[in-house]
Design brief:
By secondary structure, this protein is an alpha+beta fold. The chain contains one helix and 13 strands; from the N terminus they run αβββββββββββββ.
């Protein structure tokens, strides 16, 4: 084997070893400090804007632009319909938590509002957010995923009252 080939193999092996070291450091950093959490956009409030000045008949009448709103139907979890979270299976079966209007983070971290300590739950696994009048579930890039009514959550989705939400080995529901 030539000296050049041997030198290239040594450099390649050294680069491969450094790649594994950086991958290990990145993994430890994510476990120690958590992952960056994406924020959900706030619903746009109604904004009053004056009509165009060129229109003499409507010059003094303001035009209201409101964000589209859907009526709550089909058992969707609105603020009036939901008051608590009930854990139906898992290590904390039977636990009931009151639900306010603040976002609730679910995960293994002690900073979470609902702490679930099992091997299948990420540090910051999911989040319940009140978006307008509708409760939404958002997966925070967890390893094992968040499931709502048997479907994996990829983007924030509206929660149905009484539908099972599975995080790790724990299942819970939003109830009236």
């Amino acid at each position: 084997m030539s000296e050049l080939t041997l030198l290239l193999l040594r450099i390649g092996f050294l680069l491969l070893m450094w790649f594994f070291v950086f991958a290990l450091v990145y993994s430890l950093r994510a476990d120690l400090f958590g992952v960056k959490v994406r924020r959900m956009p706030e619903p746009a409030p109604a904004v009053a804007t004056p009509a165009k000045a060129g229109s003499p008949s409507d010059a003094t009448v303001p035009v209201m632009k409101a964000s589209p709103s859907k009526p709550s139907a089909g058992g969707l979890a609105t603020t009036a319909a939901v008051s608590r979270i009930v854990i139906t299976s898992g290590p904390k079966t039977g636990l009931e938590l009151p639900l306010g209007s603040e976002p609730l983070t679910i995960g293994r971290s002690s900073e979470s509002g609902l702490v679930i300590r099992d091997d299948y739950t990420s540090s910051h696994h999911a989040r319940l957010v009140l978006w307008g009048q509708q409760w939404m579930i958002q997966d925070l890039d967890s390893t094992n995923g968040t499931w709502h009514d048997g479907v994996r959550v990829a983007a924030p989705v509206p929660i149905k009252v009484g539908a099972p939400i599975k995080v790790g080995a724990t299942t819970f529901e939003l109830r009236k």
